[in-house]
Every structure is written in C-alpha cells, then in structure tokens.
Amino acid sequence: MSAVLIAILVLLSLAVVFGLVLGFAAVKFKVEGNPIVDQIDDLLPQTQCGQCGHPGCRPYAEAIANGEQINKCPPGGQSTIEALADLLDVEAVPLDAEHGEESIKTVAYIREDECIGCTKCIQACPVDAILGAAKQMHTVIVSECTGCDLCVEPCPVDCIDMLPIETTLNNWKWTPPVPGVELIATDTGRSVAHASSKEGASS
Amino acid sequence: MSKIFAFHGGIHPPENKKQSTRAPIRLAPVPEQLTIPIQQHIGAPAKPCVHVGEQVLKGQMIAEAQGRISVSIHASSSGTITDISPQSVPHPSGLEAPCISIKTDGQDQWIPHQGLADYRSLPPLELINYIRNHGIAGMGGAGFPTDVKLHLGDDHIVNTLIINAAECEPYITADDMLIRERAEQIVGGIEVINYLLNPTHILIGIEDNKAHAIRVLEDALRHTKLNIDIVVVPTKYPSGGEKQLVRLLTGVEVPSGRIPADVGIVCQNIGTVAAINQAVHHGTPLISRIVTVTGGAVGKPQNLEALIGTPINDLLETAQVNHNTLSRLVMGGPMMGFTIEDDAIPIIKTSNCIIAAVKEEMPPAPPSQACIRCGLCEQACPAELLPQQLFWFSKSREFEKAKHHNLFDCIECGACSYVCPSNIPLVQYYRFAKNEIRDEEAEQRKSDQARQRFEARQARLEQAVLDKEIRRKERAAQAAKTQAAKKASSETAAQTPEDNIKQLKTAAAITRTKLKKALSALEAAKADSSDNIAQLDLQYKQAEHAAEEAQKALELAESGIQAPATSVAPDIKQLKTQAAVARTKLKKAQQALKIAEDKGHDGADTLRATVAQLEEKSVAAQLVFANAETDAASSSSSNPLPALKESTDKALGTFKKAEAALETAIANSSPAAEKMKAGVEKLKAKYTEALAAQEAAETLSAPKATEAPAQSFEPQPTARTPADLKALKQNVSIMRTKLKKTETLLASAEADSEQAGELQQEIVRLTQLHKDAKAQLDAEEEGKIKAAAAQGIDLKKLKIDAALARAAVTKLERSIKKAQEAEPAELNALQTELLAAQQQATQFNNTLSQFE
Amino acid sequence: MALIRITSPHVHKPTSTAGIMRLVILATLPGILAMTFFFGWGTLINIVWASALAITFEALCIRARNRPLSFYLRDNSAILTAVLIALALPPFAPWWLTAVAVFVAIVIAKQLYGGIGQNPFNPAMVAYALVLISFPVEMTRWTAPFMLYGEGWNILAFTDTFSLIFGSWVEHADAFTSATPLDEMRHRGGLTTEEAWRASDVLANVGAWHAVSAAYAMGGVLLLYKKIFSWHTPAAFLLSLGGIATFFYIISPDTYADPFFHLTVGGTMLGAFFIATDPVSSATSNKGKIWFGIGIGSLIYIIRTWGNYPDAVAFSILLMNLAAPFIDQYTQPRAYGHKASKRGMKEKI
After folding, report:
1. Which residue of C lies nearest to A177 if distances are taken between CA atoms?
2. What would the CATH number be for the domain defined by B713-852?
3. Cβ of residue B262 closer than 8 Å to a chain A Cβ
C-alpha cells in the first residue's frame, strides 16, 4: 500500500517539477513573433498579386504556417513550392491550377497615349510601381513592377498591357542541356513537360 | 629567368596553329557595310553621338563612353551612318543588340589625328582618359575596359605587370603573329603601361609553342630600358586564363571572387598593349584588330587585320571559304568560343578568331551517356573543382550545394567537357546553374524590395485611415461646439417653424423606432410561431399608423416652410432627402419581405402590403422631388442637369434594387412576385420619367450651350457643357458596369436555366438602356463638338471618348468570346451590342479624325 | 547554310566510356592467361559463360526499363563486370553459381539502382559477397594449381572442365579441388606460420598465386600508364595492407603471415587494380581516394586475420563503397583561390 503511495507521490512530484521547468522555459525562452511566417514570407515571390486568395504574400505565409496548402502561388511556381516543401518538411505538390498557372514573367506597360489619368491603377498597385497623378498620364516603373496584373482590371480604358519581359543580352540565359537518351517509362511526363517548356522558350 | 609554377589540371588538345601562321598578316578589304555594336565590352554600352545620315570619317567617335566602366566606339572607316538599330551581334545567344551601321564610301578617309608627342608629360589621369576615349578594351576575350585596369594603381599596390601572350586556345594565332610582326608596338605599349602603373616586375607569359615569336620578342626587348622578363610556360590549355597565368608566373593565387590587382598583379593582353601603343603614339583609336581566320573549310587560313564591324562573311570570303564543307562556324577558340548562325555578324574588339570547321574537325557531339564518375574531369580542372559533383548538383537543380562546391570559381574553360568519356556537356550545365543562381539571387533581391514597398504602402494607407479618423473626430468636435453655441442662442429666441419641424422629426423618428421594434417583435414571434402574433400584428399596424401620421405631420410642416422659401435649391434638397428616406424604407421593407418569404410565413402578406405602400410612397416622394427639380431647373439659373441626372441615377438604383429583390422572389417562386413585378414596373416608369425630365432639361440647356460660345466668350456655359458631358459619361459608364455585372450574374446563373432567361432579358433591356445613354451622350457630344469646332478645342477629350468606346468594344468582344464558350443563346444580343459599340467607336474615331 | 548553335567546347578528346571499359577488359588479359595457365580452362569457360549471361541480363533490363538497347549495350560495362566475376569465382565454379552471381551483379546491383553510373556498390563484389555467403562450400573449393600433379603442364582437359562446370560436380570434385592458401593460413589450427608453410601442400605451391597476382599487377600498371585511373587508390590500398602486415609480422612472425603473402595471394591485386578503382562506387577526389584505399587495405587485413573469412577483398570494398559518399564530403579539394577546402554539403549557417 505504502509502496503504491510512494510511487504516486514520486510521480506527482516529478510531474510538478517538470511542469515548473517547462513553464519556466516557456516564459524564459519565449519565441518572439513567428519566425516560420517570416521564413515562409521570404520564400514567396512578393508579387502581392492575391492569386492565392489572400490579400498579399504575408497573409498567405501566415495561412501556410497555419496549415494551408503550399501550392497556391502561381507566380512563384514549382520552385517556390519546392522551397516551401523543403522548409516545412512536407511533400512538394504540383501547383494548384485553380489559382492560376505558372506563366512567363510579365511586366505591366501603360499605353501612354490612351491613358486618361484616372489613377485607378495607382490605387490598385500593391507595390507603388505606377507613377502619375489625376488627369496626368501614368507610367509603370518597370524595375519595381512585380507583374501581379492587379492594375489591368481597374483600368477603365484598357490601356494596360502585361508584356513578357524581353530577353536581351543582359538577361539571356543558357538553357539546361537536354539529357540525351536517359528516357525511362516513368520519365515520359517530365520529358513532355520539358519539351513543352522548350517550345515555349523557342517561340 | 623566372621560375615557373604549375597549376592543377589542364589538357593538351590538338593545337592546329600551324595552318594560320604560314602567311603574314594581311589587311582585310574595307567592307561595303560596317555594323558596329555599341557594346563590345563589359560594362555600360556606349551612347551613340551621331545620327542617321551623318557623314563620318575614319576614326571619328560615333558613340561615347557613359558611366565608369565603358569605352568609346569609333568609326572604322569613312562613310554615312545608315542605321542605328538592333542587329545580330557576336554573342552565344544569337540575339540582337543596338548597332551603328555605316555605309562606307571607299575613301577610307581618316579624321585628323596625331599621337601624343610626350605622354610622360601628361598627368596619368589625363593619359588614362585619353586611352578611354580611344576606345581601348581588353582584346583577349572578355573585353574589360582597359582604362579601368590602368586606374588600379590608385587604390591598389601594383607590383607585377603580366602581359598575357600565352594564347593557349587551339587554332588562334592572332597574338603569335602580332608578336612576330609588330613586336616594337608591344614594347611601346608596355612602356606606356609601365608609366601609368609603375610595377616592380614586368612579365610576359608565352607558351613554348611560339618559338619564333619568343625570339622576335627577345630581340625587341633589347631596345628598351625596362627590365622585362619573358617567361616561357609549357603549352597546356588553359595557361592563358588570367588566374592560371598568374599562378604560373608568380605562384600566387588570385583569391576567389577577387581580381588580380588585389594581390598586386595587373594582367594585360598583348593585343591590348599594342592597341595602347597605337593610340598613344599615333592617335589611332581601336578600330581594327588581328583576326585568325582558319579551319578546315577555309582555303587559305591566315591572320587578317580587319576593321571592327566587318561582317565575318567578308573575312571568310577573303580567306576563300568553301561553303559546301563548312559545318560549324565558331567565333573565338574551339574551347571557349561560341557558334554563330549568321555570317553577317560583325567582328568586334574581342573577336580574335573565326573557325570555319568541317564536319570531321568538329563532329556533332554524340549523345551524352551516364556519368561513370571516372574523375577525368577532376584531373583536368584548372580551378581544382569537382566537376562531376557540380554536374550532379546542376542537373538535379541543387544549386545551393553547387554553390558550396565553388561553382562560381569555374572559369568555363571546357577542359572537363573535353576529357569527359561520356560526352556530357558539363560546361553547359555549369552555365545553366550559374544563370539560375544569379537569377534566383536577383529575384530574391527584387522580392525583398517588393516586400519593402508593399509594407511601406500598407503602413501609409493605415496612417491615412488614422489621419482621416482623427480629422473626422476633430470636425465632429468642432460641429458639436458650433451646435452648442447655436442651441444656446436659439434657446432664447422664439420657437421658429424650423424648431417645430425638428420636434416633429424627432417624433417621427421615435415612431419609426417603435415601428421597427414592433416589427422585430413580430418577426421573433413569427419565428417562434407563438400565439400572440395577432396581437403583435395589431401593435405593429398601430405603430405603423403612428409613424405615418408623424411623417405626414412632418411633411406638412416642411411644405409649410417650403412655401415661403425664396430659394428653390434647399427645397430640392429636402425633397431629395425625403425621397431617399422613402427609398430606404422601401428597401428595408423589401428586405423584411424577403426574409419573411424565405421563411414562408403568413405575415409575409402583410409585409408585402407594407412594401407596396412604401413603394407608392417612395414613388410619390420621388415624383414630388422630380417635379420640384424640373421646376427648379426651369426657374432657377443654377445648373439643373447634374441634379437631374443624380435623381435619374437614384431612381435607377432603386429600380435595380427592386428588380434584384424581384429576382430573388422569383427564384424563390413566391406568390408575391407578381406584386413586386408591378412595383418594379412602377419604378421603371418613374425612372423613364426621370430620364425624360433629364433629357428635357438637357435639351433646354443644350441650345444655350451651343449658342453661348458662338455669341460670346462667356466662361460659364462653356464650362457647363463639359460638366454635363461628364455626367452623361458617368451615366454611360454606370450602365456599362451594370451590364457587365448582369452578364457575370448570367454567367453564374447559367446552371439554373430559368433564371438565365430572365437575366438575358435583363441584359437586353440594360443593353437598350446603355445604348440610350450612349446615344444621349453621343448627341451631347455632337453638340459639344459643334460648339468646340468653332474654337477647335477639346481634342483630348474626344480622344479619351474614342478610347472609351474602343475599350467598350474590346470588352464586349471578350464577353462574346466567353459567351461563345458558355451559351450561344445570348450571343446574338451581345453581338448586336458589339455592333452598336463598334459603330460608336468608329463614329468617335471619325469625329476624331475630322478634328485631326 | 545550316549552322548549328552548340555550347563550347567544340572539340572533344577521342575517349569514350566504351573505350575505357574495353581497355580495362584488355588489361585483365594477363590475369586471365595466368589463371588459365595455373588453374585450367575453367576460368576461360566461366568468362565466356558469364559474359553471355551478363549481356542477356543487361539487354533484358534495358528493354524492361524502356531505354535504347544498343546504345547502352555498347558501353561494354556488363562484359567487364562479367569478366571480373569470372576471375573472382573459383575456376570450377558450377554454371549455376556463375549465373546467380551474374544475375545479382547485373540486375540487382546495377540495373535496379538505375544502370551504369548509378550503382553505389561495385556490382561484381556484391555478387561475389552474395554467393560467398549463400554457397560457402562451392565458393571455398578452389582448384589446386597444376604444379601439384607431377611434372609439366598438366591441367584438366578442356572437355572435362566443361562437363565439370556444366555437368555434375560431385563425381570429380574431390580430385581437383583444394583450399586456397588463405584458407590454409586461416585454418591452420595451432600451428605457427612456419609450421603451416611446411605442412601444407597448398602453401608449398603458393607460387601459382604469386604469379597470378603479378599478372594482375601488370594489367593494373598498364591502366595506370593509360591514365584510366589515378595511382591514389591502389597505392593507398597496397601500402596500407602491406604496412599493417609488416607491423604485425615484425611483432610476431609466428602468428602473422608476412606482408608479401598478404599482398600476393587471394584477391588483393585483382581488388587493388580492377575493383577498388571502379570509379562509380569509389571516392571522388584524390584525397578521398587515398582514404578509400587505406580503408580497404586495413579492413582486408583485419578481416583476414581476425575475422571469419579467409579473404576479405569483397567485404572491405563493399564497406568502403558505403563510406565513399561520406569520404567525398570531407575530402573536397581546395579550389583555386580558396584558403581551405570546404567540407560537407551546405554552407554552415
């Protein structure tokens, strides 16, 4: 009988001690902010385009930290998904087509002679990359544009074009070599994707 | 004799140099057309300083250096500038870049030029600037602006000058031949650099396969006072790589990511040295260079002194190329050069060799096999990397690991690819990986910046909201103060009719609140289906009655005040408020009705009756208001149109809401739908009335507007017309938005085909309305244009309108496209609409063209 | 004129994987000749049989993996694996033993990992280790070198050998089989090495093994000269084995065999020049290869002397194959322009 009591007492006291230790640690080593959100936010492309259904990249980062799927960011594409999967130690999944498809990078251009100076696009731009004033022609600061295309819809005269970033000598890239004869049955999907991406690059 | 240090790795590809050293250097003929890229060097492109059609002389500057790292470009021969536009340039991508095209006149007439009599009398900075202005950039391969390197003496201690004459790539003999024939130029150039950098050692690194050149150089060096060492290094590719040569000659390694100057060494290519000599002693800018034209497909392999900008085809023809056997055209050496597809590409300052290879010479690469990790690449790598590890990482896109394995120390010399038994294009993998890493870094930078901007914007917007709130509070406080003051003053004064109204208003409000309470109680009771519904209903009705009475009293009192009022404007205002109140009531009742209908309660009927009553009231109020307004419009001198339009808009808004309610009712297949429809019809009638009133007013004001400018230059009417137009335009745009919304509604409702039909009708109707508004706008516009024609103004506005019309057309087209996919039925409607829009657009365009 | 755009370099050294494999196979010729000379036709028959099987298995696997057949068959790697297996197995190994070994080597150790270049272990050694563990009786029965049977070149006739390998094993078995010198040394009971040398027929004829080892070494030197592999692995391997053996021999010559014995009997030379130098499964950098070789050499001595198996080349190499990626991570060369070499896979944060 007393042995049982002693055992219970010992366990209880142990529980108390550890509880105190844990409680102390929780207070003493409290993590400031939510670093995982910052880390996720770092990986997102910061286009602030809202295609994921969140108003900006940080809200999506917070949502991911709370368990949302990582495949809702079309501008980031597969590479972002992989980076997120790597960070969060989850399986990399293909991009959710519902939120859009990964497309070539674009930049907004305003056809300036058609602009009526309504400032609607300026209000829509999440990164303040459009310059102009009421009744004055607007223009896009190309180096700041993230290509989110949020300014296209508000334009009452449809004078904003999303143009693909032009390849010049400065941003031209070597293409990855095409693996010669390493096709196996399970590779066909990848090879098709590869071929199509190549076509995209050549066209 | 200096000691020679060895570097790791290296390969011994077949040299193929003998072919092109048999003949002396020949001058290449002046081509008909010179294409001179404005960027032939690393750094910022030069800025063209000539214009198309201008005559230029040989050696004239045609583009000047801009920015710290840049060099000038000079005309290689005399002639006319024909074009400044993107052309194919020597680059592995085969892309185009801005070039200046010169049609040569065959005179080859020099601009007056002369060398410096005594360069030592010039301060070094001026001499360096002189070299920069003579367009001298590294001629070995990268094309780094030479003046930047000569500046290095300022912030680095330069103790060794290395002249790179190794020329380790197979085939190329341009430097070899330059030494053989023009050694004195090299010595002269070295003296100039020596003056600028003042190094303690000067070393010339040359491979031991150039015995003839070494002898000539030794002879030439006897004539100089400088202590110059010729260091003969064993022939091994890539001993001519800057870092490898530094190691070979000095035993020092250039730290990773740094330049040789950081360890007190400056390297210059031997061709650059000769070019410096020509510039300083003869005033000749860098407009020509020695190019080795060789390869199996060339009949007479030789070195040609070609003008910068000469198409390589001219050089190939001079060397008697055989186009039938030519299979690959390489610019640069076979190890690091790139293939070119277009033989109109010009020679630039860094083009040292052109290889026209036959198929046997450079066979197409066999398909790459699997890496067997044989390690031959590692034995060959001059940068002591692990090429196969880098290959695995690049292939699997593990760039982080590739970077850790010093990918960026790779000099892309191609030694690993050369020795690979599995024919893996290793260099291409590394270039790809480097590109991707740089890209990722750039993107990271960009996204960081975007984040900063986004956050700054968010903060700004939040601050704006806060500021607004603060201002609002301040204003409220101010208003309260004045109110209190007013109250204090009015307290003493006799009761005015206004006070009376106020009281009445309060009473009406109280009864309204009561009514509301009764209503909610009734609702609750109904939801509970309790017994006392009847009682509550009674209460509610009573309350309603009271409310109505109160309202009536209020209205009476108000109209009492209105009568003596001198100005019509405030009256209209009140009327408007009244109408708005009526509308709000109507809306609330409708909502209640909807809720009730949703619940399917019996009380719905009562509510419906209320709604009908309220509707009537609303209509009545609106009518009163409209009448008042028309009165005001006809009587007052103030501008009635905007107000009218507003009323129209409002009527439209009510109408629309009612319709929406009706739709929901229909969707719920409630019996009240019929009644509601009637209400909607009424509202519609009212709307058309308002519209008519507006039109009447407009026709009233329009002649005024058209007359006014013709008669005098009174500012008021002219100012008014645009304002009207604006309102009209707003009207039109609202219509459009509505149309669009209904369309989207239709698209979403497509599933229930019942609703779709209704919606379609709605669309047709809205389209009609839209057209009406548009037509109205057009008419107005027409009038305005007529008015404006007299003065010839407002073209910009017209343009905007045209743009709007065009946008409408494109938007319609888009929606048609969508409709084509979804529902062919509504296609016709949309198409007619599109036609109308198109007509409008063309009309606008026509008008516009008339003016323009 | 259709000009093609290709990345540099545009010239290529005329080497190929197939050529390297061919050269390695050629380098085994002296060893094959020596084996045939001393142990009869069995080796040759085994080589032909194993090669045929290897090509068949390889072809089936490539076909099953849906890859171009002739492209992969032409790289000669399957034949090289077959030759190495045949040389490692006893000369009179029954046909099914060879078949099992080749199957394991080609199908399991190579193709299942993704084919050439992807295998973490040396296929021949995986096969050898597997059959050694599964069929110890067959694997430990070596032929006695011909010297045991009187004067002259007196080996078993070709037809007899053929029927011995493909027919029934038991009838003739005892007449021609004997233990290897390493077996004798290992199972000498309480005898000292000196006594063992005197007592054993097999050890008396150890010269045959010396000769075979010398023949392998010849082939290895040829490959070194041709720069097919660098000197690092074999040198480290042989020096460490010899060094450890010398150390213990000096301590107690009665208990431990002499270093020359260790270096020249069993699979030492074959392993040093033909197995350990297999680039796919060995360490990458020169520094790494040295550690790799030292590891194999010491493991061989340890297992031979204190372990259960008389020879240990296969186990040692397989163990070091396992360690190769680890070695690679810590033996990266110092790149040009860097003060120190890097370690591990990622930058330390």
Report:
1. C7
2. 1.20.120
3. no
